[in-house]
Amino acid sequence: MLKYPISFFGNASATPGMETNWSTFASNHEMTCAVPAEFEGAGQGLSPEDFYLSALQNCFLATFKVYAKYSNLNFTRIEAKCELIVDLDDSKKPCMKKILMHITLHQSSDLKKAQLLVKKALDNGFILQSVKTEIVPEITYL
Question: Would you say residue 1 has pLDDT above 90?
């Protein structure tokens, strides 16, 4: 049984300049970050937008894997290929407008159960439910 609250930790620091990379650390893993080329940076590392997209797609995958395990659903692989669309909101401020999430589930042992668990993971993933971004899933079962 999980005990709440649960804490996760990270740290980062950067030097001046849009063209310089910096390092960020989360759970003792180092990642190189950069201002993306789309925002006139060097683009030679992961951007906050990359992390945002990754957090959402991996939230889905992790949540689905948990539900599949506890529901005894077997499958060979699940993929989430995603596109984050950054656009202007109604007040003309940039926002994470939409994520197109192309999900492919390979060789599930029970199609009806798989469909239910994909929906449940999309509806209940902690991070997925914590954002305003519209999530548009497209699901293929092979």
Answer: no
Q: Mean pLDDT, to the nearest integer, of 1-22?
A: 92
Residue 75 contacts residue 106 (beta carbons within 8 Å): yes
- As a whole number of angstroms, the distance between CA 72 and CA 98 comes to 32
Distance CA 47, CA 61 (A): 21
**Which spans in 2-142 are helix H?**
48-70, 111-124
This prediction's pTM: 0.92
Token duo for residue 95 = 């926002």
Rounded to whole angstroms, how far apart are CA atoms 64 and 68? Answer: 6
Residue 128 has pLDDT above 90, yes or no: yes
CATH code at 83? 3.30.300.20
Domain enclosing residue 6, as ranges: 1-46
